[in-house]
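Re: that backbone. Tokens:
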């Protein structure tokens, strides 16, 4: 049975409101943008008028918290649950995947009759059914990895098929999202559009007209804790990338006006973690990767002219986990899995004339990444070293007040212990194979990121996302994927490679299936991406890898190890490996 059809039946939406009465939903999520990287946060070095307008014309949450890094935040938005519940424990090599029993916000909205689309950086699983097309999104355009090596006309994918992007990727994602919105409006369907942008995450690349605004002019805003550690090229390029984001947000907002759907569209803006460098962030301690305030505090702006009073300011602490139940409530879309969510609906805070007077629970929010756990209530934060800070009197976390508030310390410590006891024993365990040939999709991608190299083979960079393998010098070397073939059948195999010399003989095997092939054409190309970088990157550069169909392989359903070997290496190196793709061959019909 089609997964979305199953969800329609499971969610029991027979009595849901008519499509025409439901608001549209548009969600913007930026990558590695700090709370302070907006003019609406008080940064006078940057101008973000379009994003600021969401605060002015809607509601703003003063203390909204996300996760310290990207994939957990994205998972928590999509599921309304703490990332530790959904199987997300890393940002690469499979640890970014959400468990398949998770019901996502897109599952819920597509079952309610919405057109659903995601455009940008997914970062919650690549192979179907972890792929966005398997998690409720009817349309996907972008990339599924956590890092991409080049932002100008790169290889991307559209609903599983590899395609070439058009220009600067954030502009491209926005163009695709606007086309999707236009199509839904033309069809008279409500839409759920998700734009998980990938900037200002490195590589630090942005069109020149944005960079020129920051390349030389004086900047006034400094990081209060570590001003001497600011790196000018990184900070300037990050701010330029943020202004590009704002320009793209403005384009979408203008298109909503042109289509006549602005009043009936809920628009949300937030970030996935703290800033990816040392720069002004409101004096808070911590940045990306930290469980301190600066690593997990994000703006949250929610605009809905038909349902939210302009200028609403909400002081209560809130979480990214609250967004799924909130959107369901605002849109009148039922969620029969509501009891499993960790988040609370923010509707009472958004829809009342005086949000500050609404009865709201005294919550404790857990910020967690790997073995670091911090706990936050409305007034205090207990950091991962059990130091206590009064976040009202001391938002920069400068003075440990644990001795003055022993009861608060004990209560927050208990919350941390409960979290550790519930999740940490199995947090890093992952026996999930990479899925090949899921029945829900004809296409499977197997990138170097998800493989294990044996022998002398080395990654192009220690960060697996968007990396490739090189130094394949011995026939004893191999690349393996812990895999599960989900459906038996014949699959066309395409190899993405580079090679200084032709001639290497190779074989791809899975259990009893073997495909032998030869690298018949050299493809010696330099690394690329550096020519666009405004600041040196930490992650891998990329290459213009050659895509060649190497043959067909007949796979039987089951678990095993997919292995790529070089059986003969006539030159110094067999190849540089970027990716395999497998496409299920359609059975021939009657003639």
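Recovered sequence:
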């Amino acid at each position: 049975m089609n997964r979305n059809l199953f969800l329609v039946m499971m969610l029991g939406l027979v009595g849901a409101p008519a499509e025409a009465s439901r608001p549209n939903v548009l969600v913007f999520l930026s990558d590695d943008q700090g709370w302070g990287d907006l003019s609406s946060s008080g940064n006078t070095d940057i101008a973000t008028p379009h994003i600021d307008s969401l605060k002015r014309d809607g509601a703003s949450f003063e203390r909204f918290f996300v996760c310290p890094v990207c994939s957990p935040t994205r998972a928590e938005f999509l599921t309304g649950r703490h990332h530790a519940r959904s199987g997300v424990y890393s940002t690469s090599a499979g640890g970014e995947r959400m468990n398949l029993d998770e019901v996502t916000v897109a599952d819920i909205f597509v079952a309610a009759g919405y057109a659903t689309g995601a455009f940008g950086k997914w970062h919650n699983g690549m192979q179907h059914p972890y792929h966005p097309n398997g998690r409720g999104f009817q349309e996907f355009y972008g990339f599924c990895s956590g890092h991409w090596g080049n932002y100008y006309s790169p290889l991307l994918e559209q609903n599983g098929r590899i395609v070439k992007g058009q220009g600067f990727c954030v502009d491209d994602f926005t163009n695709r999202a606007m086309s999707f919105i236009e199509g839904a409006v033309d069809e008279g369907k409500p839409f759920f559009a998700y734009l998980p942008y990938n900037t200002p995450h490195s590589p630090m690349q942005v069109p020149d007209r944005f960079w020129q605004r920051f390349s030389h002019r004086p900047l006034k805003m400094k990081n209060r804790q570590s001003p001497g550690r600011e790196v000018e090229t990184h900070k300037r390029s990050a701010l330029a990338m943020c202004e590009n984001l704002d320009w793209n947000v403005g384009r979408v907002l203008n298109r909503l006006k042109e289509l006549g759907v602005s009043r009936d569209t809920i628009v949300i803006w937030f970030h996935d973690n703290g800033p990816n460098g040392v720069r002004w962030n409101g004096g808070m301690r911590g940045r990306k990767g930290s469980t301190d305030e600066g690593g997990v505090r994000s703006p949250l702006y929610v605009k809905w002219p038909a349902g939210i009073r302009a200028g609403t300011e909400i002081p209560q602490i809130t979480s990214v986990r609250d967004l799924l139940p909130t959107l369901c409530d605002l849109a009148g879309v039922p969620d029969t899995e509501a009891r499993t969510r960790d988040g609370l609906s923010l509707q009472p805070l958004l829809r009342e004339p005086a949000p500050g007077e609404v009865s709201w629970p005294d919550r404790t929010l857990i910020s967690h990444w790997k073995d670091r756990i911090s706990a936050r209530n409305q007034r205090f934060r207990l950091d991962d070293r059990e130091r206590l800070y009064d976040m009202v009197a001391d938002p920069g976390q400068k003075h440990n007040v644990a001795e003055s508030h022993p009861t608060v310390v004990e209560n927050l410590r208990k919350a941390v212990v409960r979290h550790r006891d519930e999740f940490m024993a199995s947090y890093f365990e992952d026996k999930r194979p990479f899925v090949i040939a899921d029945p829900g999709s004809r296409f499977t991608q197997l990138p170097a990121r998800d493989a294990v190299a044996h022998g002398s083979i080395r990654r192009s960079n220690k960060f697996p996302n968007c990396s490739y393998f090189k130094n394949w010098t011995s026939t004893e070397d191999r690349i393996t994927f812990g895999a599960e073939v989900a459906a038996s059948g014949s699959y066309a195999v395409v190899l993405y490679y580079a090679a200084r010399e032709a001639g290497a003989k190779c074989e791809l095997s899975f259990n009893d299936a073997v495909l032998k092939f030869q690298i018949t054409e050299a493809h010696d190309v330099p690394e690329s991406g550096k020519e666009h970088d405004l600041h040196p990157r930490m992650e891998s550069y990329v290459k213009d890898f050659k895509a060649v169909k190497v043959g067909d392989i007949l796979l039987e359903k089951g678990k095993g190890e997919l292995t790529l070997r070089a059986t003969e290496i006539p030159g110094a190196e067999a190849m540089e490996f970027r990716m395999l793709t497998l496409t299920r061959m359609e059975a021939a019909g009657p003639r």
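Residues 232-259 form the longest helix (28 residues). The chain has eleven helices and 28 strands.
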